[in-house]
Design a protein that fits this description.
The protein is of the alpha/beta class. It has seven helices and ten strands. Helix 3 packs across helix 4 and helix 3 packs parallel to helix 5.
Length: 219
């Protein structure tokens, strides 16, 4: 689904922060992306989402060379990739329900077409009683689950999650990870960036380990 070949990334004229990346995200796969703080996990997530261009190398997304994708094609391809950002990026003036439904509204779908799906997803992530709440009154864990639900509502083929358990307690972190595991069983490829080794040890999954800008894959 996504392939990196000899990919490098530098910011401006500085040194490379990611070097010689060669790996694939396969259909229906589940993997953790890990490494020490500052290793480049967020930069790699941005490359996967095509919000950042590599300094060199080839990235292929759904069979297309990312460098050759026309700007008008990009939104359609990105809709096949769900992203959970570290800072949530919820809109404070919208309710939980409205935040989760937003990607479908942007696509031009009517509320009659998506209401049932949004409500079912809210229940699945444990926010069924918070549909009318605005983000400022949600806890960190509730915001995290809302951000996850918003990423899932478009039924992505690939889900990228940047430190999705970083703002929650251990029991909720395990619950969130189980949501990702269930999603993977339904056919979505999942990439979770995390530094929580204890949490990763509870799940048998492939690991992509970043250190000093280089990636080692442990299947």
């Amino acid at each position: 689904m996504i392939r990196f070949e000899n990919v490098g990334l530098r910011y401006g004229g500085g040194p490379e922060v990611l070097k010689d990346l060669d790996f694939q995200i396969k259909p229906q796969s589940f993997q953790f992306l890990t490494g020490p703080s500052g290793a480049g996990k967020t930069s790699l997530i941005r490359l996967l989402f095509m919000s950042l261009k590599p300094s060199r190398g080839l990235i292929k997304v759904f069979g297309k060379d990312a460098a050759l994708i026309e700007s008008e094609e990009l939104p359609e391809i990105r809709r096949r990739i769900g992203v959970v950002f570290q800072d949530f990026r919820l809109l404070d003036h919208l309710t939980t329900y409205e935040n989760i439904a937003l990607p479908l509204r942007v696509q031009g779908q009517s509320e009659d077409a998506y209401r049932t799906d949004v409500m079912e997803l809210l229940t699945w992530v444990g926010l069924g009683k918070r549909i009318h709440a605005l983000p400022p009154v949600l806890s960190g864990g509730e915001k995290q689950r809302a951000a996850i639900a918003r990423a899932l509502i478009v039924k992505p083929e690939v889900l990228l999650a940047d430190e999705p358990t970083g703002n929650v307690d251990p029991p909720l972190a395990r619950r969130l990870l189980r949501l990702f595991v269930e999603l993977n069983k339904l056919g979505t490829s999942v990439v979770i960036a995390t530094h929580d080794l204890q949490l990763m040890d509870q799940f048998d999954a492939r690991r992509l380990v970043l250190e000093d800008g280089r990636l080692t894959v442990y299947d």
